[in-house]
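Justification of computing resources. Each target in the renewal requires a structure prediction run like the one illustrated here; the chain below, 78 residues long, is used simply to show the kind of job we budget for.
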Amino acid sequence: MKIQQIEKIDEGRYTIWSPTCECGSEFSLEISGEQLFSFHQGGLVHNVLPTTSPEDRERFLSGLCSTCWADLFGAEEE
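Resulting structure tokens:
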């Protein structure tokens, strides 16, 4: 999991930013202090961000948005 920037909102609440995508888009979300601690302990993205969509979690793994992901690797088949 990669976090480009962390900003403290208030006690126990943080905003994290994923790496900037190749297209220049940025993505951020709000997490708890417990989630941030889990990240710093090496937690896996699906454990640190369990209620976040797979597309949004991917932003913290590869930095790619869903559009750029599809452009590079093809659209997901149903």
